[in-house]
Design a protein that fits this description.
Strands 1, 2, 3, 4, 5, 6, 7 and 8 form an eight-stranded antiparallel beta sheet that branches. By secondary structure, the chain is α+β, with helices and mostly antiparallel strands. The C terminus is likely disordered. Strand 4 and strand 5 form a beta hairpin. It has ten helices and eight strands. The protein starts with a strand and ends in an 18-residue tail after the last helix. The protein folds into two domains: 153 residues, Jelly Rolls (Sandwich); 91 residues, Orthogonal Bundle (Arc Repressor Mutant, subunit A), CATH 1.10.10.60. The chain is globular.
Length: 270
């Protein structure tokens, strides 16, 4: 029986944007049955620009469910579920937390764990952009508009603090394996000061981001296959397999052995 259809088109942004903007994903779906997806943290921020109906979001196993349209999904250290029936249509922009902080103009820690409408964050220009994107005939045209608009919006924002940018880059390049003590020593600051500044501009403490990036690395290795869970735990910097299992369950809501049945990075992933 036919249950629906979907299309997804992804593209890297223009070269000057790539250090900050990861990817554009255009999506359009129509389902005759309820679709529920597990969305796991990536360490980046997702900007969802919806051209269609609202979507239901339930975070981290919580009972509360929010109905949202266009919104920002900031850095989190736990999973969320999305659910819809009927049509979903829009564009997702995956952007680094430092870029999102600059673009949205607010400390990201005030947005952690909440779903905020893009128009409330960016203003009427967000509404005008989304309306314009919806009127365009195809995804390449929409991606080209984003390549033009995002540099201007980013230039209008406040640059990240050099200390936070350095710490974020070190955590990212080591896939979460650098210790917070090492960062403090390299930066020559107190642990408390780094925590306060980092949380404001990234949305979560440095330890939480490191846990998410270690888990994402483990997830990629699990999906690639060919290695035992114990070997993956060692490679990703966990104390042992039990440590990996515990973190993986807290962040994704599933255990590592379930990874063959799990899909991440779908529209709306956070």
């Amino acid at each position: 029986m036919e249950t629906g259809w979907w299309e997804m088109v992804s593209q890297e942004p223009a070269a000057p944007l790539r250090p900050t903007v990861r990817q554009y994903v255009g999506y359009r779906e129509n389902s005759l049955v309820p679709v529920r997806r597990r969305e796991v943290p990536t360490g980046d921020v997702a900007l969802i620009m919806s051209f269609g109906p609202r979507i239901e979001v339930a975070g981290g196993g919580a009972c509360s469910i929010e109905s949202v349209g266009s919104f920002a999904a900031t850095v989190s250290d736990t999973w969320a579920d999305t659910e819809y029936i009927g049509e979903q249509y829009g564009l997702e922009v995956m952007i680094s937390p430092l870029g999102a902080s600059r673009l949205l103009g607010v400390p990201l820690d005030v947005l952690t764990g909440v779903v905020v409408d893009l128009e409330d964050l960016i203003g009427v220009k967000a509404k005008r952009l989304i309306e314009h994107l919806a009127e365009l005939p195809d995804w390449p045209s929409r991606f080209a508009v984003m390549d033009t608009v995002l540099p201007r919006w980013l230039d209008e924002g406040r640059p990240p603090a050099p200390m936070v940018e350095y710490a974020w880059q070190r955590i990212a390049e080591t896939q979460g394996r650098v210790s917070i003590g090492t960062l403090v020593d390299e930066l020559g600051c107190s642990r408390r000061y780094l925590l306060t500044q980092f949380r404001s501009q990234i949305g979560v403490p440095p330890k939480s981001l490191a846990r998410v990036l270690r888990c994402r690395h483990a997830m990629r290795l699990l999906q690639a296959g060919g290695k035992s869970i114990g070997d993956i735990a060692y490679e990703c910097g966990y104390f042992d397999q039990s440590h990996l299992n515990r973190d993986f369950k807290l962040i994704t809501g599933i255990v590592p052995g379930s990874i063959p049945f799990f899909q991440a990075g779908m529209p709306g992933s956070a």
